[in-house]
Amino acid sequence: MKYLSELLSNWPFAVWALGLAAVFYFVVAKGSGHLSQDNRARLSLYLEGSYKGSWAENFCDLFDKLFGANHFSITTFLRSAVASFAAVAAIYALLGPILGLLTVRTTSALDLFTALAVGALVNIIPDYISLWETRWMLSTFKRFRNPFVQFGLLILDLVISALIIAIWISAFLFVTGQDQISWVEMIAVYSTYAVFFYSTFLTSLWAWGYCASSWFVKTFTFLRLHKLLDMNAPGKSLALTGAVAIFAGAFAVKPLASSDFVGLDQFDAQLCTWFPNDACEHAARLTLDDIRKFEYLVTSCDRNTGHSCLGPAMENIGLSEKQTFEIFRKACSVENAIGCTRLGYMYKNALGVPQDYDKAVDLYRQGCDGGNALGCTNLGAMYDVALGVPQDYAKAIDLYRQGCDEGNALGCSNLGFMYDNARGVPQNYAKAIDLYRQGCDEGEALGCTNLGWMFENTRGVDQDLKRAETLYLQACDMGDSWACEKMKTFKDVPK
């Protein structure tokens, strides 16, 4: 009764699953009807346990009947193309209107017409190649009767098919000038290209279904339940058991793919842990929990640099300054040092809130005391230029040194500037150069810019204009606008 209620409440998915099961039944039953009498007899004996052949022998015959024995023929290509369109339409219907994953998890809309048009460019060729690969793999199965070896080969078939479509999608994106997407984004349905990725497994899934049906029917015979099946029509027996398994299996896994299933949040969290560069921003975009959103974005950034990428990451997932402020506030309220530092930055620069240097100083101090290196560096800068606190070069130097020692590259660059310009310490170009170089090597644009200035103006080193130009270019690529302006005039400097 509960299962019936589940069917009625999910009737669109039920219709989709029923249609998939019906197609499987029709293809296998109709295809097996074209097998020779000898092949049908061998299939019956195999299912009864009397024939020691491989299920792949029978499936290869069925495969040839459906797609054509000669793979490199117009007939096979056209049938493969029709199957590709059908697969794209089926996967689009499942991920889009039925489960709602395309609307909830991806960042771009995709209508059916567009899906079919793109599928014509993305899927037809790789699906045809995948069809050939599956045909070759099935012929390989004939040499193996051990079900565990067969299972391993089926896994290999899935992996090869995934590589084929992933490479083709990557090439398509490159040719059309679009940003590349990772296989993680396709598998997790973070991208609409998941439709084309999953649809390419059509032939592999038919092999899996046929294989599972064979093993299921053989289990019946082992338990002496085969009298419930018609062994005089082995193809229909396989078709029926496979169709029932597909229908029931679809409902068994449906909760894992529903857009409102809480397990998806756990799935995204795990992907963020394993693949931070590919999954964390998506996980942050999808979660409704502000603290977890912040943690996901933190994971996607460099822990040692104080997460200077947090601002751009917030913008990437479409958060306003007000929303960003609220997330940082919540993070700081639970004593998250990075959140306090970022909140202080917003107060210091009047980002979404009135400028308040006193609050910025307090928040930077909380961040620094909590172990965030950028908090120490930023607090040092407040003492350096007397914002919210009296100017104190000694404190600034101590805080810059603490930030640098704890891995913040900006702290190293700022400390180098103090030695370069004798601010609170005796002028020491050698130390300044070492600290600028350390900051530059660790990805801080200011360190590269200042080091370039040293080489250009003969401060502690012999003049090297070529080296200076290279450093300015490096800093410009990192986003330092002053270095970019310097590059425009540097070409006029005699070398």
Overview of this protein structure:
- The longest helix is centred in the first third of the chain and has 29 residues.
- The protein is an all-alpha fold and 495 residues long.
- The chain is elongated, with a radius of gyration of 31 Å.
- It contains 27 helices and no strands.
Helical fraction equals over 70%
Oligomer: single chain
**Amino-to-carboxy terminus distance:** 86 Å
Number of strands: 0
Shape: elongated
Which structural class is indicated by helix and strand composition? mainly alpha
Count of alpha and pi helical runs: 27
Q: Which radius of gyration do the C-alpha atoms yield? A: 31 Å
**Biggest pleated sheet:** none
Topology (SSEs and partners):
Blueprint: H1 2-9, H2 11-32, H3 37-47, H4 55-67, H5 74-98, H6 101-105, H7 112-122, H8 124-141, H9 147-175, H10 183-187, H11 194-199, H12 202-222, H13 234-257, H14 263-274, H15 276-286, H16 290-300, H17 310-316, H18 321-333, H19 337-348, H20 357-369, H21 373-385, H22 393-405, H23 409-420, H24 429-441, H25 445-456, H26 465-477, H27 481-490
Task: Describe this protein with a few key phrases.
mainly alpha; 495 residues
Q: Care to give the gist of this entry?
A:
The protein is mainly alpha-helical and 495 residues long. The chain has helices spanning 2-9, 11-32, 37-47, 55-67, 74-98, 101-105, 112-122, 124-141, 147-175, 183-187, 194-199, 202-222, 234-257, 263-274, 276-286, 290-300, 310-316, 321-333, 337-348, 357-369, 373-385, 393-405, 409-420, 429-441, 445-456, 465-477, 481-490.
